Amino acid sequence: MLSIAVIGAGRIGQVHARTIASHPQARLALVCDPVQDAAATLAGTYGARSCQDVEEVFADPQVDAVIIGSPTPLHIPHLLAAAKAGKAVLCEKPIALDMKDVDAARTELDAVTVPVMFGFNRRFDPSFAAARAAVQEGRIGALEQLTIISRDPAAPPVDYIKVSGGIFRDMTIHDFDTARFFLGDIVEVHAVGQHLDQEVAQAGDFDAAVVTLRAASGAVATIINNRHCASGYDQRLEASGREGTLFAENIRATTVRLSNAEVTDAQEPYLDFFLERYADAYRLELSAFIEAVEAGTTPPTSVADAVEALRLAEAATESATTGQPVRLG
Fold first, then answer.
1. CA torsion angle for 38, 274, 25, 6 (degrees, to 10)?
2. Given 83, 108, 149, 219, which is the most exposed site by the fewest CB atoms within 10 A?
């Protein structure tokens, strides 16, 4: 059983703590957050210990692995400190807010020998993973076009948006990794950002965007994002190839459909948010992490994957700002 500490008792820390506590091969040992009440409350929910000083996590001999859910500027420092302490690492996205921070730490990152995995949980969603497996098996022939739709029910608080790094680093970065998961290397990015919500615009960010990615293979991915969706958390994927098309559709609480004099085939709304929609993905992500740590194998998502996703986010930001496509060398 892997003894795991969670750094960060915010929303994503709560997701990971709950996932660890319900996993038969994991134990939540410690929750760390500079806000004492937040750390103690989350730890107490699952019978774990809590602390405020992150150095206690790295020095604790009872901790085998660390899940990093701290603010993004601390991801690389916490990753490196955990690795130096011999702890395996599962780090949330993005790896940093700026590629300059990655470049400054490149030598240290390259020297890490402990298992390090990044939290691109979409890869582990059963539907998306099955679609990708079908592509790999040649079920639709050569993949030519990929469409990824990701719309949130509502925008996050403006205070969060101001420090998030922007929609491409915070939201689209999952879709960038999904596109690479299906298509491989991306050579060109063209993004159009939208200011549909003036409160978000005043915070300096786009609240919707459409991104086109061209892969080295010639395939093209289209990513559609929006911070608002009246019908719930809209998460869909379509992969089209020469010999067929794959669809991964939205998930609802039940499969019940209603037909009467007013509606035909009416269904329940989509699941409300990522906590519900990707619960299985977080569980399977944790299982993959535990398996890699215990078997001594390479985790399925790497530092290199995180770096490439950030590169795409920066390119999309540049493209949306200038109105021009950005070539990646």
1. -30
2. 108
